[in-house]
Amino acid sequence: MTEEFNIVGPSELVRYDLQFFADKDGKTEKPTPRKRSKAREEGQVVKSMEINTAFLLILMFSSLEIFGPYIYGRFTSIFENTYILLPELDNIFTNTYILEFVPHVLLEIIIIVAPLFAVALTVGITISYVQVGWHPTFKPLRPKFARLNPISGFGRLFSKHSIVELLKSIVKVAILSAVIYSSVIKEVDNIVLLMDMELLQMVQYIGKVIVDMGVKVGMFFIFIATADYAFQRYEHEQNLKMTKEEVKDEYKMTEGNPEIKSKIRQKMREISLRRMMQEIPKADVVITNPTHYAVAIQYDSNIASAPIVIAKGVDYLALRIKTIAGENNIEIVENKPLARALYQTVDIGKEIPPELYQAVAEVLAFVYSLKNNK
């Protein structure tokens, strides 16, 4: 039912629908640990690719500056070796030579890019591990045919996630353009002098400008990554929220139906009570309060070194114990402090504590004397 209240202004009547502020899906409950664990197994974790991009840009361009001389030297060596072979063109274009030369060049290129590839791989694995920990899963790679539905696909085009991604892309393009523009404007005077530089100087200068631009772009991307990670965490929590009915159903699945568990506990109590009542005829004496407490004691030196409490109860249960004891000609002895102490300190089937040995021994001696007289 829609709840409404009215605010009467000077000239109009305003109606407010309180249901407008409610969660449309009814998901108002925080996700349970089981829901979080299941989502993690499905690959649904808080992860921002922008963090990977930012650190990858910074470290990759920094690596270019570090490995620049190495890369330049290797490439120079390849060009020199190739240039030396130019006078022997007739011998180069043969199947035997090509099969030897091409794999050699490819191997050299792999060796050149190996440090950069190692840096990229290390950064990607490290940043991903920092964000989500180590939990490899292939479930996100499984094909989901529901995504082929054009109606739901059209709906995703205008979802909150798509809008945020669009805004993020616009900001990234704006930052990239601004950094490149500022870097180029600052180097305009030096760019004019490129024609007067030697090849090595030109390469070094262009490489330095590119590295500086890459590092600046990476630094600016950190701000985008921070905001994106906060949004990804918020969206992840919203997607994991549960309805009250889902929480109840999950509780039933993990803990069991409360009604069934209650019935099981009741049945177990009944079985335990029945077993206890069956043990009363074995008692040597029943010590009572006399109206509230009743404790049945058995002493058999072949079973235990001390007397054992085989049954106990209060009120109605105490009356039942005394009734069964009377039907089986078991002595009932009134001792209020002892009955209360035995009931509160000794569990059924356990021996009495040493501090009660003397009091129980006196009761048993009295009972045995009565039996001998009879």
List its salient traits.
374 residues, alpha+beta, name from scop, 2 domains, two-stranded antiparallel sheet, 13 helices, 6 strands, 65% helix, disordered N terminus, transmembrane helix, protein transport
Describe the structure.
- The protein is α+β, with helices and mostly antiparallel strands and 374 residues long.
- The chain has two domains: 33-137 and 149-249, no CATH class; 279-373, name from scop (3-Layer(aba) Sandwich).
- It has 13 helices and six strands.
- The strands form two sheets. The chain has a four-stranded mixed β-sheet, with helices on both faces.
- A hairpin with a 4-residue loop joins strand 3 (285-288) and strand 4 (293-298).
- It is elongated, with a radius of gyration of 42 Å.
Strand numbers in spatial order across the main sheet: 5-4-3-6
Low-confidence stretches: 1-22
Strand portion = 5-15%
Helix count, DSSP H or I runs of 4 or more residues:
13
Keywords: Bacterial flagellum biogenesis, Bacterial flagellum protein export, Cell membrane, Cell projection, Cilium, Flagellum, Membrane, Protein transport, Transmembrane, Transmembrane helix, Transport
Membrane topology: Multi-pass membrane protein
Family: Belongs to the type III secretion exporter family.
Main location: membrane
